Structure prediction request, 317 residues.
Amino acid sequence: MRASEPDPNILVWFRGGYRPLAEANVNILTHALHYGTGVFEGIRAYWDERQGELYMVRAEEHFARWIRNCGIIRIGVAENARELTRIAADLCRRNGFRTDVYMRPLGWKASPRIGVQPDDNDAAALIAIPFGAYLPSENGIHAGVASWRRIEDNAIPGRGKICGAYVNSALASDEARRNGFDEAIFLTESGHVAEGATCNIFMVRSGKLVTPAATDNILEGITRDCVMTLARRELGLEVVERSIDRSELYVCDELFFTGTAVELAPITRVDHRPVGAGVIGPVAGRLRQLYEDATHGRMDTYHHWIEPVYQKAPAAV
Ligand code: PMP
Prediction:
């Protein structure tokens, strides 16, 4: 599915100030454009019509992860996670968004010159755009194991959300779509299941919820953390982080992806085989509803995960 291009008049936060998207541009020689030396994040905000409120989901944690990941390739971010959360709320208010929103922080090596060796000329931006579903997952999706392997941590760290590393995801997701799948599943070099091209993966097997460990070259997803918490606290499920064999994908009871953009996407077919009964399973169905309720401000226990943009947000810095 290809998202349409956002309105060029949308305001973005670009190198410390607000300007229209159409005017937030970079030099063609920018280091990050040639060598992939950028780090990004993805954050959702959900509009709740009943409460007339836009809720940012775990925004401060996303910004904290972004700052830490920028540190992997030594991109400096001047603002702290709290300040960035305020800027994000301010950006949504300035745009007057009353719809679901996706926010994209981006930090990059900005020097306009030839040469791989990076310097300290760093830049940062935050884009916020109206955004709907990322995968057509309402009735379940069809996933396929990619012929491309997941990049190793000691090549380019997958946990870092480093721009250049997403060539790996782009190759796998292009292959998956051309082969008739909705999303790709990466294996590690050792042949274990890592994650989707843009999301983490969970399996239900023998009554337990199983997901690859953080050391299996995954991005340690914030949605993954939400879902593990909801499974334990709300469903009383045992959650296990361990390596998963490829063939376990074919014999398990349920499979689903999680991610900020993907949300919770049940997988009903994998590599042309039905997963379980070939319909959305009870665990995926219940967790999807719980995740939606928690992130839309309908569950008091999880109010600390969300932050309202319009009512209580502090003034912009
Ligand atoms: N894995 C990859 C490769 C991703 O790009 C994403 C999206 N950020 C995820 C997992 C899910 O992470 P999160 O739940 O924090 O969005």
